[in-house]
Write a structure and sequence with these properties.
Elements (H helix, E strand, L loop, with lengths): L1 E6 L4 E8 L7 E9 L1 H5 L6 H23 L8 E7 L3 H18 L3 E5 H7 L12 E6 L4 E8 L2 E7 L5 H11 L6 H9 L24 H20 L12 H30 L3 E5 L6 H13 L3 E3 L10 H13 L34
Parallel strand pairs: 1-4, 4-5, 6-9, 9-10
Antiparallel strand pairs: 1-2, 2-3, 6-7, 7-8
Amino acid sequence: MLILGIESSCDETGVALVDAGAQGAPRLLGAALHSQIEMHQAYGGVVPELASRDHIRRVLPLTDAVLAQAGRRLTEVDLVACTRGPGLAGALLVGAGVGAALGFALGRPVVGVHHLEGHLLSPFLSADPPEFPFVALLVSGGHTQLMRVDGVGRYELLGETIDDAAGEAFDKSAKLLGLGYPGGPALARMALQGSETAFKFPRPLLHSGDLDFSFAGLKTAVLTQVKRLAHAALEGPATSRTADPLTPQEKADVAASVQAAIVDVLVRKSLAALDATGLKRLVVAGGVGANTRLREQLDAACARRGARVHYPELHLCTDNGAMIAMAAALRARHGLIAEADLQAGGATQGRFDVRPRWPLAELSTPV
């Protein structure tokens, strides 16, 4: 079964072709991705209307590129999978609309995939795929959750953020330092030149006794520290003042200290989740999962307790079509797609809908 995956939930347009196969692991045959980062940089963040319009321009050329890369024709596609949610409503509608149109034209079924389930199952495309059961740390710009995963469609929420996600904490802290958009990777690069112990930022909910997260207070602490440094600079000699009140070293120290606080919370909560479940396998997925410092700390901490950590390949950490196609492939293989939807045109018939807010727990099936 050849599955065409389309991802358009936010600011990246991703298309991929996966061979689900009758046996063995699904294989990625081709993938293409367009990032809108450059377009949104002028606004300091994602502009939903611009994002939707850009998806419209990109999705079909990317589809052509993926088919050429895989050496396949569009008529060979057996199933079209598109992101149904969560995400930006307009952006989701682009992918769902194109997916429905392709399915209707080809007489093929179309299924809507949960964006976070795509991230959750993306490590199964890696060279070192995990085995069930495991604890999953879903960590991105909009989500920070710990899940127990016993199988495809068998998810138990262990803890989640009660306010800002870890990715938001990275991005907002970077913005306070004037690092632009996207802030997370820029802050991580600057942190390499700083000291993790220069500033003692809070680790919210670290000793709460549960597996929930909170990063809003950390953002406030960073804002306070940046204002304090700026005020001290303005109080200094006039000859030493510059347009930017913070020195490069101060910025690097703030960046390193912020990163250390976020990583510390993510690592210790993840270890607590392993302890609570008695499992010895951790899967990390989502854009923040590409953070080098987080990977180093998790690898070291899990090695000390004999646990394994699995990550998707770096190019699969961000939003992409491969994870959507993979999620559809695994759901089909485990009988989690209704038989009627797998009939030609059964899920399409010219109709489509999206779910901008869609809890992952709603996908769970009875054990």
